[in-house]
Amino acid sequence: MFFSTHLRFSTLNFNGWLSTFTAFFLAVILASFLASVFSPGEALWLFLPAVLLAAYRKNSALAYLSFIGAICVVSYLFRHHIPYALLSVFSLQISWFSLLSIALIQLLTKLTRLQQPVSAFDDDSKVLTTDSNGKVVTDVLERFAVFMGVLTPDGILREANKTALVSASLQEDEVIGLPFEQTFWWSHNSQVQQSIRKAINKAKHGVSSRFDTTARLADDVLIDIDFMLHPIFDEHGSVVQIIPSGIDITTRKRAERNSAMLTQVSSDLLSAGSLKRIKSIITENLAAHLDLSACIFCETHPVSGRLGITHVWQHASLAEMPKAKMELPFEIAMCEKENLTLIVNNVATDPRYTDGQFQERGIGAFICVPISLDKKNHFVLSVYRSASHEWRDDEIELVIEFARRFWVRTEHLRILETLRASKTTLDITLEAAQVGDWEVDLVTGLTRRSLHHDKCFGYEAQIPDAQWGIEGFYAHIHPQDRDEVKYKFEKSLRDGSDFRAEFRVIWPDKSIHWLASYGSLYGDTDGKPTRVLGIVANISERKRTEALQIAQTNALEQMAQEAPLNNVLETLILSLEEHSKNGMIGSIMLVDEHAQCLHFAAGLSLPKAYVQHIDGLKINQQSGACGTSAATKQAVFVADIASDPLWVEHRDLALAHNLRACWSLPIISGKDVLGVFAMYYSSPQAPAQMDYDSLDIIMRTAELVIKRRQNEQSVRSSEERFRAVVDNVPQLAWMANAQGEIEWFNQRWLSYTGTTMEQNLNGGWKAYHHPDHQEAVFNKFSDCLAKGIDWEDTFPLRGANGKYRWFLSRMNAIYAQDGQLIRFFGTNTDITEQRKMAEKLTKLTNKLSVADKRKDEFLATLAHELRNPLAPLRNSMELIRNVKTDPAMMQTAVATMDRQVAQMVRLIDDLLDISRISKDKLSLKRQRIDLKDIVEQAVEAVSPYAKRLGHSVQVNMPHEAISLFADPARLAQILGNLLNNACKYTPKNGFIWVTVNLGGEQQVSISVKDSGLGIAEHMRSQVFELFTQVSNQLEQAEGGLGIGLSLVKRLVEMHGGHVECKSEGLGHGAEFIVTLPSTPARPSGTPKTVGVNRAVQTEALNVLIVDDNQDSADSMQMLLNVHQHTTHVVYDGEQAVIAAAQHKPDVILLDIGLPILDGYQVCSAIRKETWGKNITIIALTGWGQDEDRRKSKEAGFDHHMVKPISLNALLNLLAQVSPANGS
């Protein structure tokens, strides 16, 4: 059999080589003959069949050899035919041929391997064969993870790999020769045995099998495997062997089961509405999945902030676990304290738990998982098993994942509760405003709506979301409005714009109502809209009012057109009927000229027979509702005509025409009754509130038109009457003829413009339009006139006072009944206040936005700048601590600390100065000074900084003395800020020039110029704004708060001067010029010289130091001791009074903010004592406002110094005090 198999294999290989060689040889011959006809690229493709044959025979080496040979042969044949110009084309053909050949080789090789049955296993050129004893000789069997063997066609096991035997603790003689399904690996489960038997039967008939099952290993451990059975055929196609194999997929199966369970748990958690249910879901699933005996939840109490047990689950066989409100178990307390996951496989052997408490509780193994959301809120999930257990990684990860999901879900519930409370407030607000809210998920198409939303669509109760959707929304819209609303909604989705629409909807009771809906789009991180949030409101009342107003306008227009009075009144009635909720029918009857009868005037909806019956109704209190109303001049309401005595004469006819209720109201003008308005209903009822609310405008309009028409009968000039009406409206109004020429303006127009009618005619009205708007307004107006259509625009008009006000202007075309254009009627409505309010809101919004942004930038900068000095301070302290024997390095460290403390003090002082200036609380202490002293002082102060950066500072002063009446400290502060900026924004080894010049008109200019980075043109106007910083790229730049130049500007202005910035751009340096008023030199005396504060030698004093900051007090004591003073230290106000009485010091350095008694109280108490009246008491505090100084003075302090203080200043102050024993 070995020989036949080998021969078959060799024959196949030979056939593959022969067919490929034949194809290649034919391609060479064809290419040679066709060299004069074909191009090199075309000849190359003749060799593709040879490559394909080799690949099809699974001989990839031969295929690649044919591919390379083809290129070589074609290159040789066409070596004289390939000009330089065609070389690139040939290279391209070779590239295409190479790519296609390689792809086909790979594809055909894989395809042929897939199509052939599994007959051999190749590994390191070793072929699976059968020897003379029937024993399979193979090396690959031992390399598979779980199982591989050889079976006879009847399913008898002949060989098994070592891995399978060792993992099950088996010897070959225990399994070899047995039916495969009866071996140890499969005998644990009859269903597994049956599946394997079926697979063997299929393999016997040449069919492979593959399925997932379980195998048993040593200690009855079950694992999941991917099991396969492949038949091996001989040359006749008969099955001679069956190869079983199995791969361990336990890890994958566990992951799948874990994933499936987590998916199900996540789904259950989403539907859980309470913490109790969430904990039950987690404990039930964890316990079942991990075979737990107990599970404990612990959470931080929201009030006490302590971790406590909130839920316990345990198996009935386990000893009672700790309950809620009991002391935390040891392992949970440790887990929270260490904030680490505790994993114990066996409490009996773990050295941390040897006291036996776990054995008493029936615990053998446990896992504690802490979750910390922040420093205050913690959560611990602890799971237990009653016996020891080697926790697997997937089990540990599963417990951690459950803990995480519990925390996420509980936090989600808390957030939902917060949102629910917020939504309740919102719902109450929306309900009070009669507004519903809605949301559309554009991904799922689902909607969310409030109850009031559904009420707007006519539902008393909220309908399910599944029955709504976008299509449900469209279905409720009136058919005539549906397409427009749909277009607007889809357009907003395309454009990303807000959705706004007003439309009619049909309620379930078939009534029609108007709604207004507004929506805003929200998208994902890519900007794609994912949902729409909006509100909806019932605007039927507004639309009804608008319709009635339109009816009123139409009635007035009809009057102007001299339409019959009956038609005018009919317009009013039809409008009221159209918007009636209960199918009201209206009518108007007019009083005759003798005031004796009522004649029918309007109400075409009433039956003609009934109209004929009531026409000429007598006016008296027994003549039905209408006659009685006209007689009494009061409304008469009849809820049921069938039983009302007023309707005896007309009852039968009314009931016959289904008129069951009637409400009659007199139309009165002054003291005269003009007619009666009647509302009829088809069922006994009170009048609808909506109808009642609508009556006012209709009644007033009816009164107006009736009265006007009566006046027309005596005046006979409908146009003049119409103008009288328009004169009474609050708008400016005007009329134009059919040709568009404005012929008339109402009195309000004339009053507003302060003109006469004649001044406005013949285009005179155009002069009152703003010049900037005239062209656009007149073009649009002319276009509407030419087309005979309505016009609307917004523009300003000049009033009689010369000021412009904004107006919303409209014009309507008026047509006769035959459709002929008669005239145009227009109005101008003043909207100035509305525009001002809108502009104010816009400006306020922008201002608040800018202020908020600057506030955030300032706070970030402030934190950065206050932190910056801390690093060198800490480094210097460490340096002092570690190099005590190196005086030079200690001196350097001290100098660094001094600079950084000065930097922090400067930042704080700048902040305080800005605050004082902003509140107008900063006052200048002016005195006559010599400017030269101030300049020298500022330059001396900045010299260390400039020297450290290698800058050269040059000062140019005039020879004559310059006297100023100014605050020397503030002037030095101005120059110091400018010089510091110059040093900061100038690269190392730069130049700085300070130049002082006397100008005309008693002015002096001080210029600080540098060779630094310069300032961009767009930043020059902003450098003096508060919190503005010019970005820099210099490593020596130490940052800042962006207030230095703003402070300079304000201090200069307080001195009556001004400051300007000059720069030719980036890289050209900058110059700041301060201009101040100078004063002529005084005849006598000289300006006060401002010197540097230097310490003087003092006599030894008895000093009491009081400060609740112990470090501050102790360090001050050490400093004073160095200067030979005797010191005592206490740390609160009460001890200060006692120590002062005991030691009777010469000086008390007293902090203000002290515990027990504050500094003011301590000072007052000492001053009351005889021995305390002459003690020098100095306030040493961080409070430095003017108000603080006033309060300290009132309490009895002699001096007020603000921390951090200068030691020289303190020593100078102490030098003024004489010791008590020397006085």
Describe this structure in words.
- It is a single chain.
- The longest helix is centred in the middle third of the chain and has 40 residues.
- The chain has a six-stranded antiparallel sheet.
- It is built from 37 helices and 40 strands.
- By secondary structure, the protein is an alpha+beta fold.
- The protein folds into eight domains: 109 residues; 120 residues, PAS domain (Beta-Lactamase), CATH 3.30.450.20; 158 residues, GAF domain (Beta-Lactamase, 2-Layer Sandwich); 106 residues, PAS domain (Beta-Lactamase); 176 residues, Beta-Lactamase (2-Layer Sandwich), CATH 3.30.450; 98 residues, Beta-Lactamase; 155 residues, Histidine kinase-like ATPase, C-terminal domain (Heat Shock Protein 90), CATH 3.30.565; 121 residues, 3-Layer(aba) Sandwich (Rossmann fold), CATH 3.40.50.
- The N terminus is likely disordered.
In CATH, the homologous superfamily of the largest domain goes by the name GAF domain
- Tally the helices: 37
Into how many domains do the coordinates divide?
8
Strand arrangement in the largest pleated sheet: 20-19-18-23-22-21
Q: Count the strands?
A: 40
Assign the CATH topology of the largest domain.
Beta-Lactamase
CATH class term of the largest domain: Alpha Beta
Helix content: 40-55%
Shape descriptor: extended
Biggest pleated-sheet summary:
6 strands, antiparallel
Q: At CATH's second level, what is the architecture of the largest domain?
A: 2-Layer Sandwich
Termini gap: 131 Å
Which consecutive residue ranges, at least 5 long each, have pLDDT under 50? Answer: 1-12, 83-89, 113-145, 1033-1037, 1081-1095
Q: What proportion strand?
A: 15-25%
Mean pLDDT: 79
Please tell me how large the radius of gyration is.
Answer: 51 Å
Provide the structure class. alpha+beta
